[in-house]
């Protein structure tokens, strides 16, 4: 596996905006440095794939922000925790492979949710990790379609990183401020330049 030059680790609660910013960062990098040098790694993707396969569900629907996914989210989280209890790195290794991470110098991990995720990347890639915490007020998240779900929003998948304070970057997306988002993207692009990934 090729060693990545930089790994952006995004963390945030549901409807915080972490996926939006991850996609925006990928778009900016891809438009400025062809051929593609970055990939989004979704740690939940192999979990959803295996859960769908074992339970006869529609994998593509589980990847969307749909009611179908919400119907299965609680049981899927519970199943995933059982797998992680046996091997905390199980889904991470598969997510990297699924995203063809070995082919890209820039990894954008869009959904880091647990301390074990953070520990894995910091242990295996101690010089490449850049952490980004994305937050939003409850009202802003409600306006984006979030609804508190017991067993989901109070589970480790949403709360395990709440007490972590030492983030390299953090952003509050409550007001949808484009200037603030652009400023963060600019800082992350500069980090790419600093490690030799040339983006303009």
UniProtKB/TrEMBL annotation:
<keyword id="KW-0153">Cholesterol metabolism</keyword>
<dbReference type="GO" id="GO:0004631">
    <property type="term" value="F:phosphomevalonate kinase activity"/>
</dbReference>
<dbReference type="GO" id="GO:0005829">
    <property type="term" value="C:cytosol"/>
</dbReference>
<keyword id="KW-0752">Steroid biosynthesis</keyword>
<keyword id="KW-0443">Lipid metabolism</keyword>
<keyword id="KW-0756">Sterol biosynthesis</keyword>
<keyword id="KW-0418">Kinase</keyword>
<keyword id="KW-0753">Steroid metabolism</keyword>
<keyword id="KW-0152">Cholesterol biosynthesis</keyword>
<comment type="pathway">
    <text>Isoprenoid biosynthesis; isopentenyl diphosphate biosynthesis via mevalonate pathway; isopentenyl diphosphate from (R)-mevalonate: step 2/3.</text>
</comment>
<dbReference type="Pfam" id="PF04275">
    <property type="entry name" value="P-mevalo_kinase"/>
</dbReference>
<protein>
    <recommendedName>
        <fullName>Phosphomevalonate kinase</fullName>
        <ecNumber>2.7.4.2</ecNumber>
    </recommendedName>
</protein>
<keyword id="KW-0547">Nucleotide-binding</keyword>
<keyword id="KW-1207">Sterol metabolism</keyword>
<feature type="binding site">
    <location>
        <position position="175"/>
    </location>
    <ligand>
        <name>ATP</name>
    </ligand>
</feature>
<dbReference type="GO" id="GO:0005524">
    <property type="term" value="F:ATP binding"/>
</dbReference>
<dbReference type="GO" id="GO:0019287">
    <property type="term" value="P:isopentenyl diphosphate biosynthetic process, mevalonate pathway"/>
</dbReference>
<dbReference type="InterPro" id="IPR005919">
    <property type="entry name" value="Pmev_kin_anim"/>
</dbReference>
<keyword id="KW-0963">Cytoplasm</keyword>
<keyword id="KW-0444">Lipid biosynthesis</keyword>
<dbReference type="InterPro" id="IPR027417">
    <property type="entry name" value="P-loop_NTPase"/>
</dbReference>
<feature type="binding site">
    <location>
        <begin position="13"/>
        <end position="19"/>
    </location>
    <ligand>
        <name>ATP</name>
    </ligand>
</feature>
<dbReference type="GO" id="GO:0006695">
    <property type="term" value="P:cholesterol biosynthetic process"/>
</dbReference>
<feature type="binding site">
    <location>
        <position position="144"/>
    </location>
    <ligand>
        <name>ATP</name>
    </ligand>
</feature>
<keyword id="KW-0067">ATP-binding</keyword>
<keyword id="KW-0808">Transferase</keyword>
């Amino acid at each position: 596996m090729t060693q990545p030059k930089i790994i952006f680790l995004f963390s945030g609660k549901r409807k915080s905006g972490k996926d939006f910013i991850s996609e925006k960062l990928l778009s900016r990098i891809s438009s400025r440095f062809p051929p593609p040098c970055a990939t989004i790694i979704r740690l939940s993707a192999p979990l959803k794939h295996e859960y769908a396969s074992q339970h006869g569900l529609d994998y593509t629907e589980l990847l969307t922000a749909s009611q179908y996914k919400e119907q299965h989210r609680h049981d899927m989280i519970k199943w995933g925790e059982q797998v992680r209890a046996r091997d905390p790195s199980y889904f991470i290794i598969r997510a990297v492979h699924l995203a063809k991470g070995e082919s890209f110098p820039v990894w954008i991990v869009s959904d880091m949710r647990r301390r074990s995720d953070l520990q894995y990347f910091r242990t295996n890639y101690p010089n490449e990790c850049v952490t980004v915490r994305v937050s939003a007020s409850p009202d802003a998240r409600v306006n984006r379609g979030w609804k508190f779900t017991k067993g989901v929003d109070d589970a480790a998948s949403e709360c395990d990183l709440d007490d972590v304070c030492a983030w390299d970057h953090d952003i509050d997306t409550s007001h949808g401020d484009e200037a603030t988002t652009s400023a963060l993207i600019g800082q992350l692009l500069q980090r790419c330049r600093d490690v030799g990934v040339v983006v303009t």
